[in-house]
Amino acid sequence: MTKPETTRDGARGDLIARVAGADIALSEGSEQVWLEVIRKMDEVYADLIVYESDLEKKNGELEEAQTFIQSVIASVSDVLVVCDESGAILQINPAFRELMGHDEQELVGSSLIDLFVAEDRAEAKTLCAAATRETTSGELRFRTSDGPSDLMAINRSPLFDAAGRRAGAVFTGRPIGELRRAYEALHLAHVELKQAQSRLIEQEKMASLGRLVAGVAHELNNPISFVYGNIHTLDRYRKALARYLAAIHSGVAVKEREKLRRAEDIDAVIADLEPLIEGTLEGAVRISDIVKNLRRLSFGAKTPREPVALAKVVETATQWAARSKKAKARIVTRLEPDLLACGHSGQIHSVLVNLIDNALDAVRDAPAPLVEIVTHAEGSSAVVEVIDNGKGVPDALRSRVFEPFFTTKTVGEGTGLGLWISYSIVHEHGGSIEIDAPPSGGARFTLRLPRATD
Ligand SMILES: Nc1ncnc2c1ncn2[C@@H]1O[C@H](COP(=O)(O)OP(=O)(O)O)[C@@H](O)[C@H]1O
Ligand SMILES: [Mg+2]
């Protein structure tokens, strides 16, 4: 734009305006008008300059923003498709173009629904027709140039124009096939692991049942063969005695009778009868003991729990154990009189008899055999400690003493079931049983049972 120039010409004061190269002389009257026009033009021109630079700046900013948005869209790995209200594609991102394997020109303008595989088209229609303002989603596959795509999680959000009217929808999608396959593999692995675990538990149960049965058979075998043998001998004795008595009853002569007495070894038979019967009885008692022990195992049926006065149970258990062991040990009890445990008094009693039995066995050869039984409350637990100054349990055996049939005692002295049964009973009660060594030597069994209040 050429700018009109105005100058004053010498002393005449005439205004000469040069517009587009032509000098026009103006008279004083119109001069004022022209000055006004020129001033206005000046102003307009200056404004225009400002507007233009403003516009250029805004344009620059706009271009920058657009490049930024484009590069963001291009770098998004999810597919992005913008459609108009009729479902025709307006814009796509490079991820979608790559997925479909078609040029942008081929894709833009086509109907999005047609780009899904035939089986998913009905679902695609529902998704595209959703009239909500919220985002809707579905799992669909595209029909790409290489065949059906991976399963994609598609989200659809409605698009609004500047006036707030619906202008179409934006679709984003990402493949979930991989994720789903990984999830399915994980799920399968989890199921298999659970099966393997329950098989293992089953096997372990069977194995421990097998151990139990083998142990029971072994334990019973001894007294049974003992009883069996004794019965055979007794039968032999019975026959000899019957023959001898028959001879007496038939009134044989003394000489004949004495001969028979020696031949049948009657004196030895009679002398042997007592130990034989005693031994048989012992065997029977042993068998009944084992059976009784096994019976205690069938406490699966839940018996109702009740408050158990521990002091009383400890006292009777001590008496029982001491009597059956004919113990020579000193037994000291320090009992909290009002301490109550929650459980089954019969079962707690048999646990205590087991522990005191073992303690009495352990101190048998000690110089000053001593067994102490102490009870006290400890938070929500009622605690019983059975402490002895016996031979103790070597560290290596600590974890084994609770195993079924683990015993260091000779056959006939121990079954190895006592602690195992005690352990099971205590755990049924929701308590615990632990073994350690008191500083003075020997062994200490600590029994913790849930405490009851009145
Ligand atoms: N107080 C104790 N002192 C030393 N050893 C013990 C004590 N209590 C248990 N044991 C060991 O634990 C083993 C298992 O005990 P238990 O299950 O009662 O079976 P059992 O008394 O029939 O042998 C015992 O044979 C013994 O070796
Ligand atoms: Mg025992």
From TrEMBL:
It comes from the Bacteria. Keywords: ATP-binding, Kinase, Nucleotide-binding, Phosphoprotein, Transferase, Two-component regulatory system. It holds the Pfam family PAS. InterPro entries: HATPase_C_sf, HATPase_dom, His_kinase_dom, HisK_dim/P_dom, HisK_dim/P_sf, PAS, PAS-assoc_C, PAS-like_dom_sf. The keyword Ion transport does not apply. Residues 65-139 form the PAS domain. CDD domains: HisKA (cd00082), PAS (cd00130). Residues 136-188 form the PAC domain. Residues 215-453 form the Histidine kinase domain. SUPFAM superfamilies: ATPase domain of HSP90 chaperone/DNA topoisomerase II/histidine kinase, Homodimeric domain of signal transducing histidine kinase, PYP-like sensor domain (PAS domain). GO terms for biological process: regulation of DNA-templated transcription. The keyword Kinase applies. GO terms for molecular function: ATP binding; phosphorelay sensor kinase activity. It catalyses: ATP + protein L-histidine = ADP + protein N-phospho-L-histidine. Its EC number is 2.7.13.3. It is an enzyme of class 2 (transferase). This is histidine kinase.
